[in-house]
Design brief:
With 61 residues, this protein is mainly α. The protein contains 4 helices and no strands.
Length: 61
């Protein structure tokens, strides 16, 4: 039974995305990126922390 939003979704609402994007732009974090932007990697690594994963490879498996 779906009662509302997931915990991950609620936590992502607290991230100041405008500040995050400004910092990425300042330090040129997305330079030369083809597929995985900084914001996407941040979301993946946050999910990994919440589920006690150790690496991106562990998330994929």
């Amino acid at each position: 039974m779906e009662l509302g939003r997931t915990l991950f979704s609620l936590i992502m609402d607290f991230v100041p995305w405008t500040s995050f994007d400004r910092i990425v732009k300042r330090y040129n974090g997305d330079a030369g990126v083809r597929s995985l932007r900084c914001s996407e990697q941040f979301r993946i690594m946050t999910f990994a922390q919440m589920t006690y994963r150790e690496s991106l490879r562990d998330i994929e498996a």
